[in-house]
Here is the input.
Amino acid sequence: MPMAKGSADLETCPVTDDILKKLLDSALNATAEITGQWPAAQRAAMAVYCYRRAHLRSLGLQLAAQCEQSDLVREAGTAGEMIYLQSKAAGAATDDLKTRPRGTRPPVSLHIV
Here is the structure.
C-alpha cells in the first residue's frame, strides 16, 4: 500500500509550538474548544502526530475522536484507521467509567479468546 500523503514527515509538528503548549496544558475536554475551528486535515494531522509519540498518545486519541475516519485514513493510511478505532474504543471506556457508580469495579471476564 502506498504511504498516505500526510504521513511521510514524522518529525514536523503540524501546529505552532504555542498551540501545542495550549493543548498539552488543557484539560481533557478543553481540546475540543481549541481544535474545534481547525480544518479537518490539520486536526487529523495533529492527532496522528501526537499518537506517534508515546508521551502524547492520549492527546492523539482525544484529537482522533474529533476527526472523521476518512480524514485520519487520508493522513496516515491504515494506521489512521487504527487510530480512529482506538479513539472510539477509548471514548467508550471513558463513558463506561462515568456511568459506573463510584467505588464499584468493572466486571471480570475469564473468557479466553
